[in-house]
Amino acid sequence: MSETNGTSEAHPRLRAVLDGIPTYKPGKPAAAADADGPTAYKLSSNENPFPPLPGVMERAVEAAGGFNRYPDMACTGLMEELAARFGVPVSHLATGTGSVGVAQSLLQATSGPGDEVIYAWRSFEAYPIITQVSGATAVPVPLTDGDVHDLEAMAAAITERTRLIFVCNPNNPTGTVVRRAELERFLDRVPGDVLVVLDEAYREFIRDEQVPDGIELHRDRPNVAVLRTFSKAYGLAGLRVGFAVAHEPVAAALRKTAVPFGVSQIAQEAAVASLRSESALLERVDALVGERTRVYEALVGQGWTVPETQANFVWLRLGDRTTDFAAACDRAGVVVRPFAGEGVRVTIGETEANDLFLKAAEEFRKEL
Ligand SMILES: Cc1ncc(COP(=O)(O)O)c(C=O)c1O
Predict the structure, then answer these.
(1) Which NCBIfam families match (predicted)?
(2) Ligand 1 pocket test: which of 44, 97, 143, 229 has the largest number of ligand atoms within 8 Å of its C-beta?
(3) Model confidence, pTM
(4) How far is CA 285 from CA 115, 208, 232, 345, in A?
(5) Structural domains in the chain?
(6) What is d(CA 180, CA 210) in angstroms, rounded to the nearest whole number?
(7) Which atom of ligand 1 sits closest to the CA of residue 100?
(8) What share of the chain in percent tops pLDDT 70?
């Protein structure tokens, strides 16, 4: 056999755009509980610390009995439930394997080589990855000094090549929000043929009444798509189900670009059960918001500068102390999410976990 027909020297040719794409770094898992050591808590992935609600669990277990079959590809039951819950036609909905799956479909539907995708930076770390995979050019726009989206600068970055703009509200990892007046002003400046994706993965944690609901904004703006997920407030991160609300041509394009049968029947049934148990789930969200206030105030009391957060996490800008701080938290039994050289994102978790984190932060503060 020659060297070029499948032996050691030859490699399948991969797309050049894959070079240099950062790999997605998932939040580090908590270390296995050690009988003698402290319990380790995972505050690194913005998950919901509450276990599944009993009704939701039952529905998922029941659905598991049929997993020899493919799921309902159209997610009919879930689409109907979502349409009723959010007052939108089914034709404005598309589901996917988590909202990140839907975001990837949005890129496939709009952007390719030669096109530009604008997003704030730092923001959700999947944006640069999925943009580069699409072949489009990433145009990151730095956050303001207050760690908020700089919508003026983002509007100024629009060119005739721009196809999609992400606005992450609240922003991951800073927790900061953009409010109605500034967002509407921005949307008014975006050309109608550019899609604006309002990523509202943490929508349910918002208590600032000036933050608009993207689904309401989308109604009379055909170039706005909204991403929502069952992974955060609804506690279904492991089941991978999210959705978009968008006008018909965009939602239809999403249904074309989605991975066929991507959302399992277990996920579909659990999502429907979650929507029907919304009041119980939202009570848990209220409890987390209460914890968020407690953690935020304690950190400010310790002397930290913390951007006001409307999500289920807090952001500490630690610069070159980031890695040391994350290691100190590890030793204290809480795993946080460091972004080396920038800062640490800490999910609001169980009360005990938040206490351990606050204690570690207090100790570290004394050394600064
Ligand atoms: C801003 C933002 N969008 C989307 C996602 C993706 O969530 P999922 O794919 O689980 O719906 C995340 C998850 O961390 C996120 O922070």
Answers:
(1) hisC (TIGR01141), PRK03321.1 (NF002878)
(2) 229
(3) 0.95
(4) 39, 15, 9, 19
(5) 23-50+278-367 (3.90.1150.10), 56-276 (3.40.640.10)
(6) 6
(7) 9
(8) 95
